[in-house]
UniProtKB/TrEMBL annotation:
Gene Ontology terms, MF aspect: iron-sulfur cluster binding; metal ion binding
Full protein name: Ferredoxin
Keywords: Electron transport, Iron, Iron-sulfur, Metal-binding, Transport
Keyword Secreted annotated: no
Pfam families on file: Fer4_15 (PF13459)
InterPro entries listed in its UniProt record: Fe-S_cluster_ET
Origin: domain of life: Archaea
Amino acid sequence: MRIEYDRDTCVGMFQCVAEWDAFEKDMDAGKATLVDAEKTDEDVFSLEVPDGEELDAKFAARTCPVDAIRLYDDDGEQLI
């Protein structure tokens, strides 16, 4: 499972931070940060979801009020 986070779309509500510790608050920028993610495009970050953290990743994606977080299965199909 892979998660993609569009930091430009983020509005800093930080619900993702409350749901999954892979996200942290960046108070200077007023946006969340996806820890250890790889930058794949301008302000888009990607991370393989570690085993056992899939449910937390799903909650983080579902709680984002502006859909800045997308979740993909191992076949590349978008789940959220």
